[in-house]
Write a structure and sequence with these properties.
single chain, 247 residues, alpha+beta, five-stranded mixed beta sheet, two-stranded antiparallel ribbon, 6 helices, 11 strands, 22% helix, 20% strand
Length: 247
């Protein structure tokens, strides 16, 4: 988002991708076909396999009849859900879903102003996606899974370094305070069948409260409404997988 210079659309992706032919026209047309004036297209892209790895063979990238859909999730040890995607057959229009992924996200660039990415989530691997999903939804944005593949991601990268190979000495402490921030925004409780907040509403943790108005939730739609919409029970820590019925 720091690279934004007034473009009409905003797209966020991982590195290490292969794009389909005419990807830009495909994604803009798909966005305009989504049934919401504030649509967000997002999923974990299907995999691209590097022939040098000698693991798997790629199917054709263009006009593939499958795509991925983020309909599943599970609770983590931190008390909030982690996303999961499935390879499904393509549909005529984007499928609605309650969350977004960082591996591919496309929306009108108003998103960069209304829901700027939170810079206080150091070294969080699981948690920033679900918080950003909730923030977008409570700001009035509707999230959809693309019905066409725009790109494919090279997930395995055999022999390549990962971010956890290059961590500073204090990364665990920085990640812990970031988890507290996520838990505070999402109202995570102390355990299954508990309604007591893990991080109290009146916490004095500075990192948790840093610029909370700018990077927090909004009241166009409420957090409790999102939990019901997503089929997530934050007290019993269960998930009903209702969106998977749309696959």
């Amino acid at each position: 988002m720091l690279m934004y210079r007034g473009e009409t659309f905003y797209m966020m992706i991982d590195s290490h991708n292969r794009f389909v032919t005419r990807w830009d026209k495909i994604v803009v047309d798909m966005y305009r076909n989504a049934p919401s004036p504030k649509a967000v297209l997002s999923h974990y892209p299907e995999a691209w396999h590097n022939p040098k790895d000698k693991k798997e063979v790629n199917a054709a990238l263009d006009n593939r009849q499958t795509t991925t859909y983020l309909c599943d999730a599970k609770f983590t040890e931190y008390g909030y859900v982690k996303l999961n995607g499935f390879v499904v057959h393509k549909t005529n229009k984007p499928r609605q879903q309650p969350w977004a992924a960082a591996g591919f996200l496309f929306a009108h660039a108003n998103l960069t102003r209304e829901v700027p990415f939170d810079p206080y989530l150091d070294y969080v691997f699981d948690g920033e996606e679900i918080l950003y999903s909730v923030r977008m939804w409570t700001h009035g944005w509707d999230i959809f899974s693309p019905n066409e593949n725009i790109l494919y991601h090279y997930y395995y990268r055999v022999g390549a370094k990962r971010f956890w190979d290059l961590l500073p000495s204090d990364w665990l402490q920085r990640r812990e305070r970031a988890h507290h921030r996520i838990q505070w925004f999402l109202g995570v409780t102390k355990g299954v069948n508990s309604t007591e907040r893990l991080i109290p509403l009146d916490t004095k943790e500075e990192w948790v409260l840093e610029e909370k108005e700018r990077y927090g939730l909004r009241r166009k739609r409420w957090l409790a409404e999102w939990y019901r919409y997503a089929g997530v029970d934050p007290v019993m820590r269960t998930f009903n997988q209702g969106f998977c019925g749309l696959a």
